[in-house]
Design brief:
Blueprint: E1 4-8, H1 12-23, E2 28-32, E3 45-48, H2 53-60, E4 64-69, H3 76-89, E5 93-96, E6 109-112, H4 115-121, E7 127-130, E8 146-151, E9 163-167, H5 174-183, E10 188-192, H6 201-209, E11 213-216, E12 227-228, H7 231-242
Helix pairs in contact: 1-7, 2-3, 5-6
Bound molecules: NADP nicotinamide-adenine-dinucleotide phosphate (NAP).
């Protein structure tokens, strides 16, 4: 490929895509928001910090041959900026987003549209496992239930009045998740529909323990942006543009 590929990251998929592309000799610049204090860095060049809105991203696209937005399914602002900036510059854009989770027999899932709705849904619980990340915890600040708050870095106030903070970075195993829920008498789990295997063990543990799960639906994707569901699909999209490899299946549209 002539020119570099900018990968908007902050996910395991973004890191794996950078690994895959660097191994193919592609010039990759990965971008992280800088939210996590000690991020696991991908190979290739890495920049950290916001671009300064859509205008800043437009400027950063100078010399960029293609943009892959591999941010988290809930990083809706960055995804909107990627769509708007590439529309302005004409830079090819691919969204890499893992599929959401699907309920299995035995799951007791309740879908909501926002963290605020999730807080309302668990208002009557005794002990809540909150796995929604450290941003947006203010939505749960008014809960009187005991809340086990799990995040990679220490969450900032406001927190629920009776909070136990558990600092941990996935992937998590089913046995550990079951042990965590049992130790804290968790009677409901709250999660975003992040999808993927890294954090799915809590869903299995909840099913096994008969504990309900409140899931926050994903924000919608920008219209007209092609979507790859896997790292391989995204790598093929990039490599097809470089003309160095076999043509892949066309990524599906949202
Ligand atoms: P967001 O609300 O969509 O974005 C807020 C701002 O953060 C953006 O406008 C942008 O600042 C900056 N930003 C976000 N992702 C960036 C990236 N990859 N590189 C450079 N700047 C970035 O994002 P968020 O939900 O706060 O997530 C931040 C990061 O954490 C993302 O990279 C995402 O992949 C990762 N993450 C998010 C979640 C989640 O639940 N939201 C979970 C796991 C990981 P400017 O406007 O200044 O460019």
């Amino acid at each position: 490929m002539t020119g570099r590929v900018l990968v908007l990251g902050g996910t395991a998929e973004a890191r794996r895509l950078a690994e895959r592309l660097v191994a193919e000799g592609v010039d990759v610049l990965s971008s992280l928001a800088g939210r996590v204090a000690d991020p696991v860095l991908p190979p290739g060049e890495v920049r950290i910090g916001g671009f300064g809105g859509t205008a800043g991203l437009v400027a950063a696209l100078d010399g960029v041959a293609a943009l892959v937005d591999a941010t988290h399914p809930f990083a809706a602002t960055m995804t909107a900026h990627a769509a708007a900036a590439t529309a302005a510059t004409g830079t090819p854009l691919l969204r890499l987003q893992r599929p959401g989770w699907t309920a299995q027999p035995g799951d007791d899932w309740r879908w909501v549209d926002s963290l605020e709705q999730a807080a309302t849904a668990v208002a009557g619980a005794r002990s809540v496992l909150l796995t929604t990340g450290r941003q947006g915890l203010a939505a749960f600040a008014g809960l009187s239930a005991h809340c086990v708050v799990r995040s990679v870095d220490p969450p900032e106030p406001p927190l629920p009045a009776r909070a136990t903070v558990v600092l941990a970075r996935g992937p998590f195993g089913v046995e550990d998740e079951r042990a965590l829920m049992t130790a804290h008498g968790v009677d409901v789990v709250v999660t975003k529909d992040s999808g993927g295997p890294m954090t799915a063990a809590k869903l299995t543990a909840a099913r096994e323990l008969g504990v309900p799960v409140v899931l926050v639906r994903r924000p919608p994707l920008p219209e007209g942006v092609p979507v790859a569901a896997t790292v391989e699909e995204a790598a093929a999209w990039v490599l097809r543009r470089s003309g160095t490899t076999r043509p892949p299946a066309t990524p599906s549209r949202p």
